[in-house]
Amino acid sequence: MEQESKDFLFEILNTPSPTGNEAPVQRVVRKRMEKYADTIESDVNGNLICTLNPNAEKKVMLAGHCDQIGFMVSYISPDGFIYVTSVGGIDASVAPGAYVTIYGKKDEIQGVIRRKPIHKQKAEERKAMKVDIADCFIDIGAKNQKDAEKFVEIGDYVTYRLGVTELKNGYISSPALDDKVGVFCVMEALRLCAKSNLKVGLCAVSTVQEEIGTRGAQTSAFGIDPFVGICVDVTFSTDNPGYNEKKIPQIELGKGGAIAKGALCNPVLYEKLLQTANKYKIPYQKDIAPNVMGNDTRAMQVSRSGIASASISVPNRYMHTQVEVCHLKDLETISKWIAEFVKTLTSKSDFVVR
Fold this sequence. Notes:
- The protein is of the alpha+beta class.
- Helix content is 26%, strand content 27%.
- The strands form three sheets. It has an eight-stranded mixed beta sheet with strand order 1-2-12-3-13-16-14-15, sandwiched between helices. The chain has a six-stranded antiparallel beta sheet with strand order 5-4-9-6-7-8, with no helix packed on it.
- It is globular and about 65 Å long.
């Protein structure tokens, strides 16, 4: 991966974007894309839309959601401990012991999530696998409630402490790879198309609020009204001990993006994407989507009178934890795949299923 692109990726990953307050990371994306996009717009929900060839007759929408799962402050105890509720699909079992950041009134406040020490737990509590986030609390070092309220208030957002760890052989670990890697891929695809004579408009969208119902993609797709929509999100990889089931598609890190086949994915678009990958010898993997997918694809597909939609996913280990793992090579190949496909499109391209 080119150093400039890698720096952009890491900056995204190191910038907060809790669901409902994604503005900080959108500013990072805007700053970088100003030299590539013809226009950049924000909407009232917080989506960031970067466009090439905005006056084209037909447009393509690329969606990667920037919002990350987290917490919201719900209670401050008399002794100064912070209690939270989940925002998005938090895996509460990995929360105790995590470092977190509270985005407070004026500053970012550092804290740690804890629960009752194992020494004080009853036998049945030790045996229980389930952890309830309501039984956990955040310690910021406050003396008491009054002291805590100098820095934190009800409704403040909280995320796992951000930071990228480079592992061996091109693997990286970070909170919120779901789905900041998708944001990177759609913006990188636009960058790769920036000097091409596109016959269609290209809108790369850093969408918001995917983790609570694909809300940003729904409104941005309605506004853009594209004839093609491609979502880049993450998918579960099977190349780790957490997956022992062999009767599902095998998805591995470093072997390319996983394209989903199913009701949400336009079959004509699906085949044309495979043709592009094969032509340019871009590695890819096949996944299935037999039911409604939980990503931005579903919001795009049913916008207005319908959009020819597809889902390409970055293989991801340990999803919705603070130690998600992806491979840099997959981000490169997905970006190239989408860019080369967009370059083939014209106003006469047809994705109607006949």
